[in-house]
Design a protein that fits this description.
Keywords: Kinase, Transferase. The chain contains two helices and five strands, in the order E-E-E-E-E-H-H. By secondary structure, the chain is α+β, with helices and mostly antiparallel strands.
């Protein structure tokens, strides 16, 4: 695969979320990616002890904001082709998808995650 370059549109995974964005800088092991849309909302809770509720701190994980930039590990960044959805529409769709998945899971982790997602949803779409 050829090296991606500044200005390329990409998908990138970042802390359990997946985003569509544009490369704005290239570093040794990372691409700096400007977020343009959300493809998958980040999971809630402690990423080091997945799907556990009994952890020291159950994290509320927000999606990266529109045009927020983040260093994404090069191995987690792939070329993107196609239309880039509007950020708010993509965020709403990603939130609905994760809520649906969590509502089908009766585990304590899913129920705690759902509470966090619903709180985030109120903040995102006020």
């Amino acid at each position: 695969m050829s090296e991606l370059k500044i200005g390329d549109y990409v998908t990138a995974f970042y802390k359990t979320g997946k985003y569509i964005g544009e490369i704005t800088n290239i570093r040794e092991e990372h691409y700096l990616v400007r977020v343009l849309a959300v493809a998958k909302h980040p999971m809630q809770g402690d990423i080091h002890t997945g799907k556990e509720v009994d952890v020291p701190f159950f994290h509320e994980r927000r999606a990266l904001a529109y045009r927020e930039q983040a260093n994404m590990p090069k191995k987690m960044v792939k070329p993107y082709e196609g239309e880039i959805p509007e950020y708010k529409d993509s965020l709403k769709e990603a939130v609905e998808k994760i809520k649906g998945e969590l509502q089908e899971d009766a585990s304590p982790w899913a129920q705690q995650s759902l509470k966090h997602i619903e709180t985030l949803e109120q903040d995102y779409f006020k």
